[in-house]
Design goal:
This protein has one domain: Rossmann fold. The chain is built from 8 helices and 11 strands. Strand 9, helix 3 and strand 10 form a beta-alpha-beta unit. Helix 2 packs across helix 4. The longest helix has 21 residues.
């Protein structure tokens, strides 16, 4: 089910995966992954046969003309790209594709097989979701994991999510079962903007990926695209007072949440002080 085009020797690679579809609001995650593959000069090394994993009435192949004459059939793909880096600790393996319709467990096991073949050290999935966030503030990116060692090493939060999941959630479960640590990045995309791809959210995911992997990546084009995106959105917002009022409300909420995060923990009472206060309360109020 997997066709290999090259069998590179990779040094302790990090697997970065992003899928178009349910997990990819504003095409932000897939755009981030494709940008990283390009600036890291990655080469295609393998492809998963789509035959078993798609309902082609739902995910139809496309016909394209080459030179205006030759017809070419393009099927939905999931491809692995590899890049060697100057980093002495990690090379890169990138999986770019489309969320499959069928056989998620089989699909995820194929990804795990490739990860084991190249001895992946840890996996990082990229995702994006629609949220009540303003476009005019920094993009919130949530970084979570389940593996405690990875949480401690990379300073991540423990995932507490419960509810429907996509291929990303199923893939994380398959990786965990094989003992491959995995982390997840989710960018929050303004739900009122139907912009695809969203370069600002993609840039936020790329920046966080670089932070976690410690492998630098050129983001000049993404910064330029983000500036153009913000300028264009500002023009649109200026034309609608109702939208301006709604965004002002979202900005107020975002700023308030930021202020709460910046509360100095030194202002909080110590554990001993809390215990002493509790003992005093119990003495005064009996059993």
């Amino acid at each position: 089910m997997i066709q290999f085009f090259d069998d590179l020797e990779l040094n302790n690679p990090v697997l970065i995966a992003a899928f178009q579809g349910w997990n990819d609001a504003g095409d932000s995650a897939s755009f981030a992954a494709s940008h990283l593959a390009r600036v890291w000069d990655a080469q295609r090394i393998a492809s998963i046969d789509p035959e078993e994993f798609y309902d082609f009435q739902n995910m139809r192949p496309n016909v394209r003309l080459i030179d205006g004459e030759t017809r070419n059939l393009v099927w939905p793909t999931n491809e692995f790209w590899a890049a060697t880096t100057q980093d002495e600790k990690h090379d890169i393996l990138i999986l770019q594709g489309i969320e499959p319709n069928l056989k998620w467990r089989t699909f995820s096991q194929l990804v795990v097989d490739v990860a084991q073949r190249f001895e992946v050290s840890f996996a990082l999935t990229l995702g994006a979701l629609l949220a009540d966030v303003p476009h005019s503030r920094p993009v919130p990116v949530t970084a979570t994991a389940v593996d405690q060692e990875l949480i401690a090493r990379l300073g991540l939060a423990r995932s507490r999510y419960e509810g429907p999941t996509g291929i990303v959630g199923v893939l994380h479960d398959a990786l965990a079962r094989q003992g491959i640590p995995a982390a997840s990045l989710w960018a929050a995309v303004p739900h009122y903007l139907a912009v695809s791809p969203n370069p600002k959210a993609a840039l936020a995911l790329v920046d966080k990926t670089v932070e976690l992997t410690r492998i630098p990546a050129d983001t000049g084009e993404l910064h330029a695209a983000t500036q153009a995106y913000e300028d264009r959105v500002a023009e649109i917002v200026d034309e609608d007072e109702d939208v301006q009022n709604y965004i002002a409300l979202l900005e107020e909420r975002a700023d308030e949440a930021l202020r709460e995060e910046m509360v100095d923990i030194s202002d909080l009472p110590s554990g001993d002080a809390i215990a002493e206060e509790l003992e005093r309360f119990l003495r005064e109020h009996g059993d």
